[in-house]
């Protein structure tokens, strides 16, 4: 589906280290391929343990996981909204992303110089937020000007638009991001073409030292308190540990290394899964002798739309979908066995596809 998450943060907070760990993630497990399509963009496999179990049952010729794009965006400095540093490049790159992964430094250490002289995650977050909000204010003011011109011709939709956009303006001026503006979902269409940076969903990643990776620390607590009203997920990851993991030669050593730290899963794996959730995505599967494949859909898609992810002809000519719940496929071990016990259902155009559904589409073009 070509969806992107952009990794943002101040210089020297660890975002590029995390990106580089993602680029080496294929060394961590067989199902972590990565390729670079531009110097700062990677296509990364979403780890999904269900694929391995479906592979065991179907024994296909190949397995195809689902992917997302991760973008390492140039470091931001104060004044970026006015073009300082790499500000213009930074902001245009964010605009092209569907969601934001905001990396915040949450560790002390003299060996890594902080751009502002000392560690202060609250200040760091506010620097990023302020620059994005200032840029959004520019966009909102331009939008109001356009709507006011349209409203002179008694355009009722433009008048409603002015009312809604001014809510965003006041919200941004109060130092808050557009994603938390008190606007009904149906009214957000009035601001959609402004592509506001702070309207994008966000995931906060606290980059900590080794001793804080399990329980967090005072800096992590500060970040959690700061974002409690944003309904945003906060991940605790030690980029230095992730870099060490990529240097280990085999899977058993990596598992043992994580176990010694009190971890069951690498931070990279948690980050990729969280990014997938952040984009409001889920997965359905097709299973056959030739291929077991994961397909990415937006949550809430109905069967014809899900079929269209495979090919537009599948959506145009959609007739029915054969659906087996993942748990049933795992229990009865094959499509035929599920069919025999009545665990294969025939669904029509209104069926909302569930995460993990095993599907086969009937279509006619």
Explain what this protein looks like in three dimensions:
- This protein has a seven-stranded mixed sheet with strand order 2-3-5-1-6-7-8, with helices on both faces. Strands 4-10-9 form a three-stranded mixed sheet, sandwiched between helices.
- It is an alpha/beta fold and 365 residues long.
- It contains 13 helices and 13 strands.
- The protein has helices at residues 15-23, 49-58, 87-95, 121-151, 156-173, 218-226, 239-247, 251-260, 267-278, 303-310, 312-316, 326-332, 335-340; strands at residues 4-8, 34-38, 41-45, 62-64, 67-72, 99-105, 202-207, 234-237, 281-287, 291-298, 318-324, 344-347, 358-363.
What does this entry show, briefly?
With 365 residues, this protein is of the alpha/beta class. The protein has helices spanning 15-23, 49-58, 87-95, 121-151, 156-173, 218-226, 239-247, 251-260, 267-278, 303-310, 312-316, 326-332, 335-340; strands spanning 4-8, 34-38, 41-45, 62-64, 67-72, 99-105, 202-207, 234-237, 281-287, 291-298, 318-324, 344-347, 358-363. Helix content is 39%, strand content 20%.
Layout: helices, strands, pairs:
Elements: E1 4-8, H1 15-23, E2 34-38, E3 41-45, H2 49-58, E4 62-64, E5 67-72, H3 87-95, E6 99-105, H4 121-151, H5 156-173, E7 202-207, H6 218-226, E8 234-237, H7 239-247, H8 251-260, H9 267-278, E9 281-287, E10 291-298, H10 303-310, H11 312-316, E11 318-324, H12 326-332, H13 335-340, E12 344-347, E13 358-363
Parallel strand pairs: 1-5, 1-6, 4-10, 6-7, 7-8
Antiparallel strand pairs: 2-3, 3-5, 9-10, 11-12, 11-13
Helix pairs in contact: 1-7, 4-5
């Amino acid at each position: 589906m070509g969806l992107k998450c952009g990794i943002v943060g101040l210089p020297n907070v660890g975002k590029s280290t995390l990106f580089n760990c993602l680029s080496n993630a294929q060394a961590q497990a067989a199902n972590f391929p990565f390729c670079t399509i531009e110097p700062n963009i990677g296509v990364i496999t979403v780890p999904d343990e269900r694929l391995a179990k479906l592979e065991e049952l179907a024994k296909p010729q190949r397995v195809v996981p689902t992917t997302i794009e991760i973008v390492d965006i140039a470091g931001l400095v104060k004044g970026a909204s006015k073009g300082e540093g790499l500000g213009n490049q930074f902001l245009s790159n964010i605009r092209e992303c569907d969601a934001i992964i905001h990396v915040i430094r949450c560790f002390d250490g003299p060996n890594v110089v902080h751009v502002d002289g000392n560690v202060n995650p609250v200040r760091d977050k506010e620097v990023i937020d302020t620059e994005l909000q200032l840029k959004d204010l520019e966009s909102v003011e331009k939008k109001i000007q356009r709507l006011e011109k349209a409203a002179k011709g008694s355009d009722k939709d433009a008048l409603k638009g002015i009312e809604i956009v001014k809510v965003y303006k006041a919200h941004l001026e109060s130092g808050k991001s557009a994603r938390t503006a008190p606007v009904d979902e149906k009214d957000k269409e009035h601001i959609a073409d402004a592509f506001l940076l702070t309207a994008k969903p966000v995931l906060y990643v606290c980059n900590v030292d080794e001793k804080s990776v399990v329980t967090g620390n005072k800096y992590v607590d500060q970040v959690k308190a700061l974002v409690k009203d944003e309904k945003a997920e906060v991940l605790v990851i030690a980029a230095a540990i992730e870099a060490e993991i990529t240097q280990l030669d085999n899977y058993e050593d990596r598992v043992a290394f994580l176990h010694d730290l009190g971890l069951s899963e690498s931070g990279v794996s948690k980050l990729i899964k969280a990014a997938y959730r952040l984009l409001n995505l889920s997965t359905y599967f097709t299973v056959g002798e030739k291929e077991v494949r994961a397909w990415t859909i937006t949550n809430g898609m109905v069967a014809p739309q899900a079929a269209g992810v495979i090919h537009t002809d599948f959506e145009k000519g959609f007739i029915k979908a054969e659906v087996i719940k993942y748990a049933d496929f795992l229990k009865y071990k094959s499509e035929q066995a599920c069919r025999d016990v009545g665990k294969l259902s025939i669904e029509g155009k209104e069926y909302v596809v569930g995460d993990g559904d095993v599907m086969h589409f009937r279509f006619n073009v």
